[in-house]
Amino acid sequence: MNWQPIETAPKDGTEILMAVRYPIDKNIKGVWATFFAYFDTAFEEYPNGIWAFDCNLPIITGTPTHWMPVPHYTQPTTES
Q1: What is the value of pTM for the model shown?
Q2: Where do the structural domains in the chain lie, given as residue ranges?
């Protein structure tokens, strides 16, 4: 899986991994963070929808830039 531009991310409520840039100032690249997120159209304050954290909070600071599908995780098995 590779990171893809945020413009190509699904906006149907599918949970994704999202890279968000938090700039500090024009001379510093800032901080990057990765979150589970989804596009939400249920917030009254954002009638056109907004990216939200998986805990139902809108992402109102930072700039979402890239996304990828949530990787499938398989719990390791232990053999006795």
Answers
A1: 0.78
A2: 4-69
